[in-house]
Amino acid sequence: MKRKRKTSYSGSGPISSIMSPTKMKERLQRLDLHQELVESMEETSEEFIRLNTEQMYAGKDSAGREMSPQYASQGYADEKHGMNPTPGYGTPDLKYSGAFYQGYELEVQGDKVKEDSRVQYAGKLTAKYGEQIWGLDPENLSIYRQETLVPLMRYKVEIKLFR
């Protein structure tokens, strides 16, 4: 037996919770997507840092290339390869004691993302291996966006618009 669909609503039940177009327009106008993005990036900075330090540990820079220059000393390259063979012999991973990774900080400043480490030799590592040590390679950037940043942004926007 076919059920008849109700075609008029009395203002009670789930359909009454749908907001008016005027109310939706007001909420959309108040929504600051740039601010939501900045806050979302700040809130997910730990995941960004985790992905970047894993990338460094594998000896990769933000372009997905092997970090260079390779270690100059064969003895040091031997020692480092024994500690972490993942990046390949002689390829830097920027980790010896772990302090550089542990000191990693990310700060969102307007349209820029500032990355650094609190260790005093961070500037020397950046100078030697280049600014490209900071940031995610295309694969990790995609993972960060799809699995972390976009879901949080979607949630934040939904909260602002519909609740």
Q: Can you walk me through this structure?
A:
There is one protein chain. The longest helix is centred in the last third of the chain and has 25 residues, at 138-162. This protein has one domain. Strands 1-2 form a two-stranded antiparallel ribbon. α2 (33-43) packs across α7 and α3 runs antiparallel to α7. The protein is built from seven helices and two strands. Residues 5-16 have low confidence and may be disordered. The protein is mainly alpha-helical and 163 residues long. The radius of gyration is 24 Å and the shape is elongated. The chain is 50% helix and 7% strand.
- Sketch the topology as an H/E string, one letter per element: HHHHHEEHH
Mean pLDDT: 90
Name the overall outline. Answer: elongated
Radius of gyration (CA) equals: 24 Å
Residue share in helix = 40-55%
Distance between the termini: 38 Å
Structural class: mainly alpha
Strand order of the largest sheet: 1-2
Major sheet, described briefly? Answer: 2 strands, antiparallel
Number of helices: 7
List the uncertain runs: 5-16
Give the amount of beta strand, in percent: 5-15%
